[in-house]
Structure to design on (136 residues):
C-alpha cells in the first residue's frame, strides 16, 4: 500500500518473453474468494494466450462482461490479439486488443507481477486491487 493505494506485487524489471504468457490462465484462489466475498460465484472461466498472438477470454469479469451480468447462465467470450508492452505506469503488461468497437481497441492491460518466473497477471479493477490470474 502506498498512500492508501494497493501497489501490487513487485513487477519484473526485464521484459518477460512470450513463453511466459502462452498457455491457459485461471483466476487465483484469492480472486475467487474475493468474488465470493463480493457475492459472486466464480463461473467456469479461462484466459487463453495462443502462440500466434491471439487470445480468448471465457467468463472473465471486466473482460467478457460486467459484474451486473456476471451471474447470468450464458457463456461470454472475448477474443482478439495480445502482445507484451508497457502499461500507463511503465510496467510490463500483456496488452489485449479486440475489435469490439469495430476497430482494433485496447481493452485491457494485464500487469505482470512477481520479480521473476512464474509470473502472475493482474487485471486492475480499481486502485484497491483487481483480478489475479495464474498459469496452470
Amino acid at each position: 500500500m502506498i498512500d492508501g493505494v494497493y501497489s501490487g506485487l513487485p513487477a519484473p524489471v526485464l521484459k518477460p518473453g512470450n513463453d511466459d504468457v502462452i498457455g491457459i490462465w485461471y483466476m487465483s484462489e484469492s480472486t475467487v474468494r474475493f468474488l465470493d466475498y463480493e457475492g459472486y460465484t466464480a463461473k467456469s472461466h479461462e484466459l487463453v494466450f495462443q502462440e500466434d498472438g491471439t487470445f480468448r477470454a471465457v467468463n472473465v469479469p471486466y473482460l467478457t462482461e460486467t459484474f451486473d451480468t456476471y451471474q447470468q447462465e450464458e457463456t461470454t467470450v472475448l477474443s482478439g490479439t495480445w502482445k507484451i508492452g508497457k502499461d500507463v505506469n511503465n510496467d510490463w503488461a500483456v496488452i489485449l486488443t479486440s475489435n469490439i468497437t469495430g476497430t482494433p481497441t485496447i481493452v485491457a492491460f494485464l500487469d505482470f507481477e512477481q520479480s521473476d518466473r512464474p509470473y502472475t497477471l493482474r487485471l486492475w479493477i480499481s486502485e484497491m486491487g483487481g483480478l489475479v490470474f495464474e498459469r496452470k
Summary: The first strand starts at residue 23 and ends at 27.
